[in-house]
Write a structure and sequence with these properties.
3 helices; alpha+beta; 8 strands; six-stranded antiparallel β-sheet; two-stranded antiparallel ribbon; 28% strand; 29% helix
């Protein structure tokens, strides 16, 4: 399976799971402001790292606590996502923030100091 297909599969899984609250953000609900939250962190960073082509981000979006989470960016031909992982021991995926491709490219450009 290609990295882009895996990303589409992960994004679909996140959309299907919805639900819960991300402790690191204090926001609850299946989707709010283009963000899907995962209740139990069903995807670990270890699996994500091996499965999804992505870019490391030095900072997460402002709605997430930088002391509690770290973020990764990935895109397909039609969409972009910021994956938010906990620093907890197993580094579970807590949320996925969906952004436009234009916004995603601006985020990556800002990362290139």
């Amino acid at each position: 399976m290609s990295p882009r297909s895996t990303l589409s599969l992960v994004a679909g899984l996140v959309g299907a799971i919805g639900a819960g609250s991300a402790l690191a953000s204090g926001v609850s609900g299946a989707q709010r402001s283009g963000i899907s939250y995962l209740e139990k962190g069903v995807l670990s960073y270890e699996v994500f790292e091996m499965s999804v082509a992505h870019e490391d981000l030095s900072e997460c979006p402002q709605e997430f606590d930088p002391g509690a989470v770290f973020c990764r960016y990935a895109e397909t031909d039609h969409s972009a996502s910021i994956f938010v992982f906990s620093y907890d021991e197993e580094m579970p995926l807590l949320a996925v923030k969906y952004v436009s491709l234009d916004e995603g490219k601006a985020i990556l450009k800002a990362e290139d100091y």
